[in-house]
Amino acid sequence: MTPLERIRALALALPEATERVSHGEPSWFVRKAPQFVSMADHHHDDRVAIWAAAPPGAQADWVGRDPSRFFVPPYLGGRGWIGVYLDVPSADDTEDGKFWNDVADIVEEAYRTVAPRTLIRKLDEDSR
């Protein structure tokens, strides 16, 4: 499974999440408006990454854990978003590997950061 396919599966598993192109890249939204994750090759630097909304303090926490995998993305970093490189060697771990578990956590937290409370309750109910 490619990184895009993995991100797509994680994002679209969330209640009322949709995918559309934004700024030339696949992006995921909650309902019609709030974007919570975007694929990123905006600067054509040959780095495959996602940018994700994040709750307060999460950006510094992730970057502090491993700055070779997590970064402050341009433009949205000032709003607390987190960047995740998907082209690092640890991204080749199995689907059960720690890297993809971290990515799944980041995608879910991004969703929770922008989703309305009704959808967060639905997500919590569905995960019981």
UniProtKB/TrEMBL annotation:
Pfam families: YjbR (PF04237). SUPFAM superfamilies: YjbR-like. Gene3D superfamilies: 3.90.1150.30. Keywords: DNA-binding. Signal peptide: none annotated. It comes from the Bacteria. InterPro entries: YjbR-like_sf, YjbR/MT2646/Rv2570-like. One of its GO terms (molecular function) is DNA binding. This is MmcQ/YjbR family DNA-binding protein.
